[in-house]
């Protein structure tokens, strides 16, 4: 429960809305303990009407009352936002950043604040099924780290890592991962349509197959190779299909895609300085 805590979201975007909704719907936070802050009055009015949260256009003023400040702005606007907040966050508050590429040391220096958590969430957080990987500065104490866990668990699962560099890896694997899954599902649906299925039926078959496969793994967790072998009869249809996928370089293509995403994440992190606007 929120208790007497106040959480302020600086940047009322889609992920901020997902976290706020998770706190209200799944973690029992009262809407009045949540403040959405940003320069778009129409967006703030919409969130207030749908979630019952409080709103404030002045982010520095909003942060002044916060126990937790969530940085949820777009990367290209972060330098301006950080400059506006610098020195204005209560000393005992926790800053939680979901801004891609913004490193802990840079945030701490520019915000003039010590207790900071950096998070890489993913889009299934919007339905309470996300996975968030996070790291923290040494100055974030046990109580603040527990706060971070509670917030992230309202959107799904969370994994703490000591090494901040793992967040770039998480960006490539779990952060970008839904895109790989959706592309795979789209390709399967298109293949079904090519066979002759109406698209509606092909989509239903693919969605339930993916959901059922995950549920089967969760009920009886084994190495994925073993599960694959269980549905691959010698000389059967699965064996024929898998042979072609391996021959076409399916694993290699996927591995290279993840590596490309990782390299891009590292590049963005190195190239984006909080004192300058991202060129992208």
State the CATH superfamily name of the largest domain. Answer: NAD(P)-binding Rossmann-like Domain
Mean pLDDT: 93
Low-confidence stretches: 275-280
Would you state the CATH class of the largest domain? Alpha Beta
| Largest sheet geometry | 8 strands, mixed
Q: Return the structural class.
A: alpha/beta
Separation of termini? 40 Å
CATH-derived topology of the largest domain: Rossmann fold
Strands in their spatial order, largest beta sheet: 3-2-1-4-5-6-7-8
Taking all Cα atoms into account, the compactness measure Rg is 22 Å
The shape, in one word, is elongated
Number of strands: 8
Q: What's the helix count?
A: 12
- Beta percentage is 5-15%
Distinctive features:
280 residues, alpha/beta, Rossmann fold, ProC C-terminal domain-like fold, 12 helices, 8 strands, 52% helix
Outline of the structure:
The protein is built from twelve helices and eight strands.
Write up this protein:
- The radius of gyration is 22 Å and the shape is elongated.
- It has 2 domains: 7-161, NAD(P)-binding Rossmann-like Domain (Rossmann fold); 177-266, ProC C-terminal domain-like fold (Orthogonal Bundle).
- The chain is built from 12 helices and 8 strands.
- The protein has helices at residues 14-25, 41-51, 59-63, 78-85, 104-111, 142-153, 166-175, 177-195, 199-219, 224-230, 237-247, 250-271, and strands at residues 7-10, 34-37, 54-56, 68-71, 94-97, 116-120, 130-136, 156-160.
- Helix 7 crosses helix 12 (250-271) and helix 8 (177-195) crosses helix 9 (199-219).
- The chain is an alpha/beta fold.
- The chain has an 8-stranded mixed beta sheet with strand order 3-2-1-4-5-6-7-8, sandwiched between helices.
């Amino acid at each position: 429960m929120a208790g007497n805590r106040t959480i302020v979201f600086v940047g009322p975007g889609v992920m901020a809305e997902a976290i706020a909704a998770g706190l209200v719907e799944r973690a029992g936070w009262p809407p009045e303990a949540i403040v959405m802050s940003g320069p778009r009055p129409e967006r703030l009015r919409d969130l207030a009407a749908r979630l019952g949260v409080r709103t404030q256009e002045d982010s520095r003023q909003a942060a002044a009352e916060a126990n937790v400040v969530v940085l949820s702005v777009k990367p290209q606007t972060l330098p301006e936002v950080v400059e506006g907040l610098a020195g204005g966050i209560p000393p005992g508050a926790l800053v939680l950043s979901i801004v891609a590429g913004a490193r802990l040391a840079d945030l701490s220096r520019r915000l003039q604040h010590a207790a900071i958590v950096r998070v890489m969430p993913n889009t299934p957080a919007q339905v309470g099924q996300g996975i968030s990987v996070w790291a923290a500065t040494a100055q974030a104490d046990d109580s603040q780290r527990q706060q971070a866990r509670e917030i992230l668990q309202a959107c799904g699962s969370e994994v703490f890592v000591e090494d901040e560099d793992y967040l770039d890896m998480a960006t490539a694997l779990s952060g970008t991962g839904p895109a790989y899954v959706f592309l795979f599902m789209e390709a399967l649906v298109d293949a079904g349509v090519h066979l002759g299925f109406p698209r509606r039926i092909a989509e239903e078959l693919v969605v339930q197959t993916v959901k059922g496969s995950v549920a089967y793994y969760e009920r009886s967790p084994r190495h994925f190779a073993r599960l694959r072998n269980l549905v691959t009869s010698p000389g059967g249809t699965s064996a024929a299909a898998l042979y072609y996928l391996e021959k076409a370089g399916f694993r290699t293509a996927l591995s290279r895609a993840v590596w490309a995403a990782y390299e891009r994440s590292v590049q963005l992190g190195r190239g984006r300085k909080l004192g300058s606007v991202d060129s992208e």
